[in-house]
Amino acid sequence: MPLDKERLKRVPMRELSVEERIKTFNEVPLGYTEEEAIKEASRCLQCVKPFCVGGCPVGINIPAFIKAISKGEFEEALKIIRKANIIPAITGRVCPQEDQCEGRCVMHKIGDPINIGALERFIGDWALKHKSELFKVPEIPKKNKQVAVIGSGPAGIAAAADLAKMGYDVTMFEALHEPGGVLMYGIPEFRLPKRIVRSELEYLRKLGVEIKTNVLIGRTITLDELLKEFDAIFIGTGAGLPRFLGVPGENLNGIYSANEFLIRINLMRAFEFPEKSDTPIKVFGTVAVIGGGNVAMDAARSALRMGAEEVKIIYRRTEKEMPARAEEIRRAKEEGIQFKLLTQPIEFIGENGYVKKIKCIKMKLGEPDESGRRRPIPIPGSEFEEKADIVVLAVGQRPNTTVTFGTNNLKLTKWGTIWVNPETLETSIKGVFAGGDIVTGAATVISAMGAGRKAAKSINAFLSKQ
Amino acid sequence: MPFRILKKKILAPNIKKIIVKAPLIARKAKAGQFVILRVDEHGERIPLTLVDWNEKEGTITLIFQEVGVSTLKLGLLEEGDEIHDILGPVGNPGEYVRDQTICVVAGGVGIGAAYPRTKQLKELGNYIVSIIGARSAELLILEEEMKKYSDEIYITTDDGSKGRKGFVTEVLKELLEKGRKFDQVLSIGPPIMMKVTCDVTKPFGVKTIVSLNSMMVCGMGMCGACRVTVGGETKFTCVHGPEFDGHLVDFNELMMRLRMYKEEEQIALEKFKKNILVKSHASG
Ligand SMILES: Cc1cc2nc3c(=O)[nH]c(=O)nc-3n(C[C@H](O)[C@H](O)[C@H](O)COP(=O)(O)OP(=O)(O)OC[C@H]3O[C@@H](n4cnc5c(N)ncnc54)[C@H](O)[C@@H]3O)c2cc1C
Ligand SMILES: Cc1cc2nc3c(=O)[nH]c(=O)nc-3n(C[C@H](O)[C@H](O)[C@H](O)COP(=O)(O)OP(=O)(O)OC[C@H]3O[C@@H](n4cnc5c(N)ncnc54)[C@H](O)[C@@H]3O)c2cc1C
Ligand code: SF4
Ligand code: SF4
Ligand code: FES
């Protein structure tokens, strides 16, 4: 294909119309057809020095898989992706591509970067459609060694899959009643359909991984007890503990942490209350979501779909500093979500125990802080009130350290994350490895998955020496 | 692993006891801890105290009062039926103390939750004075069990159908006014009872421990649904509790938060009752 105008522009992806979207939890972007995927793939320049690969935390051979797509060789493309990434249907949907692979694509200089995420998703979906033939489980010679994986998020899934393929007997422990971690309880259906997560977990079971739900390590079984029964352990327990603002009125009825709000909807299916779910949720009138990350966008867009009349996002910096993906901000706006920027809640005001208003203060941006973003500073005397019938706090998450209960030797960092040797991901306890959000703090699906795979390699090295 | 109900007993109108197979939980349970369970695949996650457990048999005992859809559904399960999910034990075990004089104040279904702590504290060598109460005689549960582990026991009912007419907190107040010394009071029951207990003990400066029953979803610190204010700080009942220093607890906030879903609970209850009626017509 010549470098004509057409080649500079992305093949657009079809999306559900705004009217349809806000009434259901159906997925918004609809994915490429085979023709569209081939066309988009043909735009790739097949760079000799592909910068895109450097932007991918797991180093997928991006030009190679794209080339395979352009030739219509989808199975070949899948093989190439799977060498580095076992969950393309998921990462293709949720990776912050604009900061990673696509952010580095040279096409940026002259036009639209290649839609790498969409192509990866296309292959992931194609694989799921043809899964019976493709997901045949190979005969794996057993090593007769036991490995425990704690937590069933992307870090745990990746570690378990690799270890099972190497021939280890893998048992995965999950505290909740359904496995999948944030993929299941956090990221909403309209961004990541749960059937996709379930089918990845199904593949894990086919590989022989035993998944035990309702087991909270640290309480039901301690790490020390696991060490007696398993030859090695991987910890991938995530950063699932909600932060609060610590301002007056925060415990009024109608104020949720984003985690509670999303767990009620995604895991407990509160949108089917009372017909097919016993778990209620309150969403009505004006919903205010505090925060500017992906979690805030997910909560705001979920609130809209749950029937809120009006949804606003309250964020203390400007849109430029928002950590949420550009695409999600765009979609939130399209759906009519309002943005109240440079605004910080300082008090929640209630009536009969239920929140009614938020007292806010206006902010301005000062010097950049440690994160490199400009620090918000309150403007004295600028207090005002915003109406809110429901509030969702999406102001960050902390590491989940329940796993350390009853264990003395696991070293933590000053941030409460688990300390690991950066080379091997081994913790301060021999034979215990850790990765994902529990080590890095809240990060991304693909980095958690990458850590799980890295730990699997180290575990293999560790157990091979024994 | 199926959580099968091995035994079921009706203790009082709407109060049931079940013994459930749950070996991993039975192995680890300590007095003061609880479980989070989901009756069926549509079920809510609800907390229930571990009343008893048998490591050898791999069983746990739960006692619950039917107050809404989840507990009514649980009450419909029979011996041989399975509970979909049980997570536990969760929450912190109660504090071990020895050689003290402890007053246990418990009301209603809260006696179920107070029983394992009473037994444990007695076995640790404490002198136990129990004050237990219910609305009426037929609603009073675990009387024999509580007697067995108490050095002294007082019983009250709201209507006077058994023991003294009145509230448990009135007996406590009298004892304190008469100069009885307690090293601590352990109060488990409806929030209003725990609040009044704290109001009674405060002027006497008696340490008072309460076991809070906030609404919960995850039971492991992930959601914040169970948050309460203790000593001006937000705490999660499931990971920091359920037992707290009662004199520091904001009970008004706790009671307000327990009312959050009043309307929804009513809707669910009506729908549930209608379905039950339809089913019993169909089968009858
Ligand atoms: C709402 C939301 C939206 C997001 N959107 C994106 C996005 O678009 N793109 C992106 O890349 N990233 C996104 N993220 C971040 C991403 O989901 C996480 O970085 C990733 O899931 C971390 O994976 P993990 O395996 O380390 O942990 P998690 O996914 O958190 O999984 C940890 C699991 O361990 C379990 N667990 C915890 N403690 C124990 C214990 N003691 N015993 C047993 N089990 C335990 C937990 O229940 C959980 O299931 C989002 C996060 C949230 C909350
Ligand atoms: C740590 C802990 C231990 C508990 N142990 C026991 C126990 O051993 N036995 C037992 O019967 N109950 C116990 N509870 C209370 C029990 O969890 C609730 O009664 C149950 O969740 C109600 O669910 P439902 O769907 O049946 O009723 P819902 O429809 O949710 O509620 C019906 C009525 O009960 C009230 N209610 C709801 N949740 C609670 C609650 N957490 N505490 C008190 N009232 C509530 C509502 O305000 C409403 O009036 C415990 C609670 C906690 C937090
Ligand atoms: S895994 Fe994520 S970052 Fe890597 S190529 Fe795929 S979409 Fe890009
Ligand atoms: S940088 Fe862009 S154009 Fe070059 S190989 Fe990667 S995706 Fe293709
Ligand atoms: S119930 Fe979720 S934090 Fe306590």
Write the topology of this structure.
The complex is a heterodimer of chains A (466) and B (284).
Chain A: H1 5-8, H2 18-21, H3 34-41, H4 51-55, H5 62-70, H6 74-84, H7 88-94, H8 101-104, H9 116-129, H10 131-134, E1 146-150, H11 154-165, E2 169-173, H12 182-185, H13 194-206, E3 210-212, H14 223-229, E4 232-235, E5 241-242, E6 255-257, H15 258-267, E7 286-290, H16 294-305, E8 310-314, H17 326-334, E9 338-340, E10 343-351, E11 354-368, E12 374-378, E13 384-387, E14 390-393, E15 397-398, E16 432-434, H18 437-440, H19 445-465
Parallel strand pairs in A: 1-2, 1-4, 2-3, 4-16, 6-14, 7-8, 7-14, 8-9
Antiparallel strand pairs in A: 5-15, 10-11, 11-12, 11-13
Chain B: E1 3-12, E2 15-21, H1 23-28, E3 34-38, E4 46-49, E5 52-54, E6 59-65, H2 69-76, E7 82-83, E8 85-90, E9 101-107, H3 110-123, E10 127-134, H4 143-148, E11 152-157, E12 164-165, H5 168-177, E13 184-188, H6 191-201, E14 207-211, E15 227-230, E16 233-236, H7 237-240, E17 243-245, H8 251-258, H9 262-283
Parallel strand pairs in B: 9-10, 9-13, 10-11, 11-12, 13-14
Antiparallel strand pairs in B: 1-2, 1-7, 2-6, 3-4, 3-8, 5-6, 14-17, 15-16
Bound molecules: flavin-adenine dinucleotide (2 copies), iron/sulfur cluster (2 copies) and FE2/S2 (inorganic) cluster.
FE2/S2 (inorganic) cluster is lined by residues 216-219, 221-226, 236-238 of chain B.
